Every structure is written in C-alpha cells, then in structure tokens.
Amino acid sequence: MADQSLKVRLRQIRLEAQGIVSLEFVAADGGALPGFTAGAHVDFLLPGEKVRSYSLLNDPRETHRYVIAVLREAEGRGGSVWLHDRPRVGDVLEVRPPVNDFALADTPSESVLVAGGIGITPLLSMARQLEREGRPWRLHYAARSPAHAAFLDELRALDAGRGRVTLHCGEAGQVRLDMAAAVAAAPADAHFYGCGPARMIEAFQAACAARPSAQVHLERFAASSEAATAGGFELVLQRSGQRIAVAPGKTILDALLDHAVSVQYACSAGVCGTCMTGVIEGEPDHRDEYLTDEERRENRQIMICCSGSKSPTLVLDL
Ligand code: FES
User: Fold this and answer.
1) How many structural domains is the chain composed of?
2) Rounded to the nearest whole angstrom, what is the distance from the C-alpha of residue 263 to the centroid of ligand 1?
3) What is the 3-state secondary structure (H, E, C) of 28-55?
4) Which of 47, 94, 98, 131 is within CB 3.0–4.6 Å of 36 for a Cys-Cys bond?
5) From CA 257, how far away is CA 190, in angstroms rounded?
6) What CATH number is attached to the domain comprising 72?
7) Residue 106, in any domain of the structure
8) Three-state secondary structure along 206-267?
9) Strands, E, within the chain: which ranges?
C-alpha cells in the first residue's frame, strides 16, 4: 500500500481542549489533496510501522487541507502520544488517502449526531456539511467538562443560537446525556450517527434498537480498555452497610442495579462522569476515559459503570 500513500506537511498545531490538539496538514508538494466526504478518516503511517486512523474534522469541501484532532492517551497504544509530542510545524508525514466507513445518508430527514469525547471529530465535519446543505441536524456532545470539550466555539457558531447543539457533562450543574431521551425525541425517519468509545457506542446501539438499522450509523474507536466484568469481588456500601457480590459478567453498576441500589448513570461508557462514586477502601481497576492519570492513582473515585476492583473488597461511599 506504500505506493498509495501521500506526503503531507504539518502546517499548524493548536490546543483545542484539555488533552486535545488539532493538527492541520497540507500536501507536501503544495497541490490539492484527494477529496473526502463527511465522516471520512485518514490512516497515518507512523514510525515503527504503526498505522493510526483519525477522522477528518474540516469541511469536506476543502481540498487544500486535512484537519484531525488527537486526544493524548498516555495509556493508549502510543500513536496519540507520538502525535502530541513529536511532529513540529513543517514536518512531513505519510498518510493514506481518505476512506469513509461512516458516511452521511443522502436524505432530507433529520440527522441526530451523538459524540463521546474525541468522537466529536467526524460529527463536526458532518454538522458542517448538513448545515451548509440546509438539512436539519442536532448534536449531543458528551464530555468530561466544558474544558475537555473541543471545538465548542465552532459548534456554537454552527448552532447560531438555535439550540441544536447540547453539551452533556457529568459535572454538577451541567446537562447529562440521556441517550434514550435523545433518541426518543427524534422523528421516526431520523438518521442517527454515533461516534465515541466502544462502551458509549453500545449504549447508543441499545437506545436505537427500536429504530430501523439502516437509520443507525456508528463509528466505534478502540476503547483504551474494556469494561471490567471479571467479577469475583465484593462491594461494601459504607452508608447502608449492604454487602453485594459482583459476579462474573457484571459491572459494579449491574450488580448495584440488580440489588435495587439507586445510583446515577448516563453514558454507561466511562465518558460522562455521571456515575462517579467515592472509594473509601480497596483498589479500583480503572477502565474509564474520565479520570486523569493522577486521579486514577489516588483511587479516591471510581466510575462504577465500567471499572472493577483489584482488591477482594471495595468499600464505596454509598
Ligand atoms: S455513566 Fe457515564 S461515566 Fe459512568
């Protein structure tokens, strides 16, 4: 495939949100780049034979540049850290031409875009195209906090005060993402587009289960880790004194709900922070995308929708 690759020059790096940079590339020879459609990605051929896919977030009308955004994942597979730390403006990188496995349907009906974290990138490109073509759209964007949500200014400009863009954060005072309600509010002929971590996409698929599959489109990026479902440990709820065994195949959230313990959750994917619960004793097995590395090391909080326990007992502030 090397003969199909092309050389691109890094023109700009910009900090877009906490832990997220955008990188703008132009053709190394100064010419036009192969065109793309909204939802497309390019494969970057990184040193060490690493191939990493990144969605293009700019307007698909543009042929003079490719813009991607990268979340720095210290515990990821290395591509994001390399892209954050190594390339300098002017450097030439190698990419494969854009491919689209997540294209917009050719329909005048409403498009409902659901983004989790860095999953905003292809959906931003879609929102730009839908808006330009005068087609109805709505965007739900789940992020840890407004400071962690990239491209809010661009999204606000696209929204132009019409209430089409809703930012969902797990923090107090912020609107939480209710996936089922977001889907239920859309007309019968709406098309749904979800992009985010694997676990968020599972929740998205479940919420869209009653809709025709041809109207449900998704792009899942590899979660840096799977939900902890090995079970084999016990929860102690400090306030009620209740003890609950977490069986294999269950998350902590599953086990609590099975025992009718009232807890808040939304994305079920470790993205939004809604289910954050205090840890009083024990060592969590963190699997979320929400806590910082330092917060993980402190072990004072856990996302119960996806994280498990490394210790035989986990005492929670419940
Ligand atoms: S419910 Fe969103 S992080 Fe757990």
Assistant:
1) 3
2) 11
3) CCCCCCCCCCCCCEEEEEECCCEEEEEE
4) 98
5) 31
6) 2.40.30.10
7) no
8) HHCCCCCHHHEEEEEECCCCCCCCCCCEEEEECCCCCEEEECCCCCHHHHHHHCCCCCCCCC
9) 6-17, 20-27, 41-46, 50-55, 66-71, 92-95, 111-116, 137-143, 165-169, 191-197, 216-221, 233-237, 243-246, 276-281, 284-285, 301-303, 308-309, 313-316
Which pLDDT value is given to residue 47? 87
Nearest to 177 by CA among 120, 226, 229, 259: 120
The pLDDT confidence band at residue 264, using thresholds 50, 70 and 90, is confident
Q: Is the pTM of the predicted complex or chain greater than 0.85?
A: no
- What CATH number is given to the structural domain containing 261? 3.10.20.30
Say how far apart CA 279 and CA 318 lie, in whole Å: 9
Strand order across the beta sheet in which 233-237 lies? 243-246, 233-237, 313-316, 276-281, 301-303
Residues 217-263: pLDDT tens digits? 998 765 556 778 889 999 999 999 999 999 999 999 999 999 999 99
> In which domain, by residue range, is 201 found?
111-221
- Asked if 9 and 71 sit in the same domain, the reply is yes
Task: Check: CB of residue 108 under 8 Å from CB of residue 58.
Answer: no
Structure tokens at 6: 């092309």
- Ligand 1 centroid from CA 63, angstroms: 38
Across 72-109, b (16+ Cβ under 10 Å) vs e yields: ebeeeeebbebbbeebeeeeebebbebebebebeeeee
Indicate if 133 and 45 belong to the same structural domain.
no
Gap between the Cα atoms of 57 and 293, Å rounded: 27
Query: Which atom in ligand 1 lies closest to the alpha carbon of residue 305?
Result: 4
